[in-house]
Design brief:
Structural class: alpha/beta
Number of helices: 8
CATH architecture of one domain: 3-Layer(aba) Sandwich
Number of strands: 8
Helix content: 25-40%
CATH topology of one domain: Rossmann fold
Order of helices and strands: HEHEHEHEHHEHEEEH
Distance between the termini: 23 Å
Shape: globular
Radius of gyration: 17 Å
CATH class of one domain: Alpha Beta
């Protein structure tokens, strides 16, 4: 499973310096947990992964990192975890599966990561609302064209957007992703902005480099 731009953007965008405990839903390779642990040297992170092979890979990556004592990998579905845990989180982060009616690959791990059959949006948001602390935030990245659907579904569980960053491939392109932070408090003003991955010269933009440089050796 490759590390994608979506995950790098989300991990770099998520403000985690003041959190008390973090939940990473569908951790895959463990990339989001590792990124957040790099930025916060005290935080404890619980990371969930339903696929056996992916969970093993995440555990291996964590064990090879300097933050192995603070990241817990659980091979379990989010739905089962919600039922059994008593923990509450000040930050919940997820790069959720969002394909619903597309052709599936031969890899089970890739299918689970890309398709929402095993974790529909309503079950995801219901569980997040239960596990989030009263002043906590839940952060997601998903296709831009599903932004309004996510906002509508989230409001059913009393989760409201507090910050939205639209992601564009370049200044000439329309947004293709949205990164959204939801809270249990309805904000009078939602912070909205955009980021371009590439500049006009088809190289990484200065804003993208500035945001993600702590995680890329090439920057």
């Amino acid at each position: 499973m490759k590390v994608g731009t979506d995950a790098v953007l989300l991990g770099a965008w998520a403000f985690c310096e003041n959190e008390t405990r973090i939940l990473d839903i569908g951790t895959g390779t463990g990339i989001l947990s590792l990124m957040l642990a790099q930025r916060n040297d005290k935080i404890e992170i619980d990371a969930l992964e339903i696929n056996t092979e992916a969970a093993l890979l995440a555990k291996q990556n964590v064990m090879l990192s300097p933050w192995r004592e603070r990241i817990n990998i659980y091979q379990i579905s989010f739905q089962e975890f919600v039922i059994n845990t008593q923990a509450r989180y000040s930050l919940i982060i997820c790069n959720p599966p969002f394909f619903t009616k597309s052709l599936k690959a031969n890899s089970e791990a890739r299918n689970l990561a890309r398709h929402n059959d095993s974790l529909p949006i309503n079950e995801l948001l219901a569980g997040v609302a239960k596990l989030l602390t009263s002043h906590g935030k839940a952060i997601f990245i998903f296709p831009y064209d599903s932004l309004e659907k996510w906002k509508t579904e989230a409001e059913k569980f009393l989760l409201f957007p507090s910050a939205i960053t639209l992601v564009k491939s370049s200044p000439a392109h329309f947004p293709h992703r949205a990164m959204v932070s939801f809270t249990k408090e309805r904000k009078n003003e939602v912070v909205e902005n955009a980021i371009c991955i590439n500049s006009h010269q088809d190289t990484y933009s200065q804003e993208y480099q500035q945001l993600t440089s702590p995680y890329y050796l090439k920057f």
